[in-house]
UniProtKB/TrEMBL annotation:
Signal peptide as annotated in the record: 1-22
Lineage top rank: taxon: Bacteria
Tagged with keyword Signal: yes
Keywords noted in UniProt: Signal
Name of the molecule in the record: Lipoprotein
Amino acid sequence: MKFNLNLKGMFASFLVSLVLIACNSNTKSEDKVEAAATIVNDDEYFSVKIEGKLWEAFPSKEFKAYTLSYKELGHQFSIFAEAEDGSRIDLSFHAKDKLTVGSYPSIRNDDGMLSGVFYYPEAKSSDKETASTTMEHPVQENTVQVTKIDKSDKAAYIIEGTFSPTMYAIYETNPVRSSKLAEGKFRVIYRPDSMNPEF
């Protein structure tokens, strides 16, 4: 009887050990996945100085990525960056043929395409919004400089660049008619899929 109880106790200890090992192993693999996601996020950035103050947007906490889009018609690439306070910057550039490293203008109407830098300083729509191109300023050269397009990983293109445009008030009611963005830089990872075409 004593032997039987010892055997049951050993068996119970063995089962508890197995459960603990399995739980620990799952936690470690989850930690590895989370760490890998953090490393990818650390590789991406979007920032600029607005009136000397650093403005930063980070990848979405939910999707762990920036909101990016590419339109085949017009070869237009766009980045939608939002700061923690709800302010946002939309940046887009396009090419007649294909996107390459180089300098891209802000342009109000290039065969129907609108590209440039657009700043929304408040979470909701307001008359303080500015853009690098307006009706009065339909073109601004050298707005975005794309310094790197790395497509060696077909599942994750790396796009880097800089931007420092003059921004103009969109609405007449904005007393600040123009301002300058400085030291703008971005590094984003575009992942082609069924909704986001390759380029």
